[in-house]
């Protein structure tokens, strides 16, 4: 009996590998609902293969998209129409932000790659008055509530992969080929540190091991 959970998790891992889906792209529509109908400039930090940057370009005058991995940036450039108002750059999020300020800054599944407080403070400095910062980040299960939500997400994760792939086995989408790193901060710590740097920020723990953060510059 003691081997059952271990065997179950291995079987679940094999199933998920055969039916992959992009957990970050799942939140793109939600991100767009947090943004104005139109805006001037946007910055997408940790842009990966550029799905969110291209989506924001349908509303923005110009989008700067930065990622630290040159191969991923090259792939994003190849996937983007030449007339899209998006510029992809290989850059460090703490030293290589292209412009002084932006109306919108987004950061999806990248904040845990950076020094948390320093990155949030840096984004705050680069956000124009009235601007919006939206983060979709990863949390690490630490509390009983965390573990309960993680357990609830397991069957939903498998079901979502099955539905999105129409029951067929599939290769991971291009957006899932960028380098990854596991999260180390629990949600309680994320919440505490965020409120220290960004008073008034709206945080919410989400399914699929994600949290969301929205903050408006005054």
Question: What can you see in these coordinates?
Answer:
It contains seven helices and seven strands; from the N terminus they run ααβαβαββαβααββ. The protein has helices at residues 4-18, 28-33, 51-56, 70-79, 116-125, 144-164, 187-197, and strands at 39-45, 60-67, 86-90, 102-108, 127-138, 202-206, 210-216. A seven-stranded mixed beta sheet has the order 3-2-1-4-5-7-6. Helix content is 36%, strand content 23%. By secondary structure, the chain is an alpha/beta fold. The mean pLDDT is 87. Helix 5 (116-125) packs parallel to helix 7 (187-197). InterPro entries: Methyltransf_11 (IPR013216), SAM-dependent_MTases_sf (IPR029063). Keywords: Methyltransferase, S-adenosyl-L-methionine, Transferase.
Could you give a quick summary of the protein structure above?
The protein has 218 residues and is α/β, with parallel strands linked by helices.
SSE string, helix = H, strand = E?
A: HHEHEHEEHEHHEE
Structural class: alpha/beta
Which fold name corresponds to the CATH topology of the domain at 38-81 and 94-139 and 183-216? Rossmann fold
CATH-scheme architecture of the domain at 38-81 and 94-139 and 183-216: 3-Layer(aba) Sandwich
Tell me the β content. 15-25%
User: Looking across the biggest beta sheet, what order are the strands in?
Assistant: 3-2-1-4-5-7-6
- Termini separation: 57 Å
Helix content: 25-40%
User: Which regions have little confidence, pLDDT < 50, spanning 5+ residues?
Assistant: none
Question: Briefly, what CATH class of the domain at 38-81 and 94-139 and 183-216?
Answer: Alpha Beta
Anisotropy-based shape: globular
Rg over C-alpha atoms, rounded to the nearest angstrom: 18 Å
Number of helices: 7
CATH superfamily of the domain at 38-81 and 94-139 and 183-216: Vaccinia Virus protein VP39
């Amino acid at each position: 009996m003691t081997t059952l959970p271990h065997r179950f998790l291995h079987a679940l891992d094999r199933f998920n590998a055969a039916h992959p889906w992009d957990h970050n792209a799942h939140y793109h529509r939600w991100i767009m609902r947090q943004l104005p109908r139109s805006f001037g400039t946007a910055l997408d930090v940790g842009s990966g293969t550029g799905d969110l940057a291209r989506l924001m370009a349908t509303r923005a005058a110009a989008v700067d998209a930065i990622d630290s991995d040159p191969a991923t940036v090259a792939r994003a450039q190849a996937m983007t129409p030449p007339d899209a108002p998006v510029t992809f750059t290989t850059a460090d999020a703490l030293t290589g932000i292209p412009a002084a300020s932006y109306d919108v800054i987004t950061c999806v599944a990248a904040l845990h790659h950076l020094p948390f407080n320093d990155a949030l403070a840096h984004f705050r400095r680069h956000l124009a008055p009235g601007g919006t910062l939206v983060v979709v980040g990863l949390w690490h299960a630490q509390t009983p509530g965390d573990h309960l939500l993680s357990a609830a997400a397991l069957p939903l994760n498998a079901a979502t992969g099955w539905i999105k792939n129409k029951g067929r086995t599939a290769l991971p989408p291009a957006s899932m080929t960028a380098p990854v790193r596991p999260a180390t901060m629990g949600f309680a710590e994320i919440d505490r540190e965020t409120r220290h740097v960004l008073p008034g920020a709206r945080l919410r723990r989400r399914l699929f091991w994600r949290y969301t953060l929205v903050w408006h510059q005054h």
